[in-house]
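Private note to self, pasted from the team thread so I don't lose it. Backbone tokens:
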């Protein structure tokens, strides 16, 4: 399981490589697919954490 911080760091690296034109056209599709996976991981973790915090706050 990928940690949120690791997923975010990898996503930032992909974006930086694309901004610097370091990704060739052949690699672009694979990098975009991986970026999409990483975004989903981050979004899911943030949603889960938000739900946990809301549950804790409602208990009080």
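Design output:
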């Amino acid at each position: 399981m990928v940690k949120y911080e690791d997923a975010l760091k990898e996503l930032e690296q992909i974006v930086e490589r694309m901004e610097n034109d370091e990704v060739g056209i052949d690699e672009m599709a694979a990098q975009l697919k991986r970026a999409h996976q990483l975004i989903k991981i981050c979004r899911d973790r943030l949603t889960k954490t938000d739900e946990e915090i809301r549950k804790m706050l409602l208990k009080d």
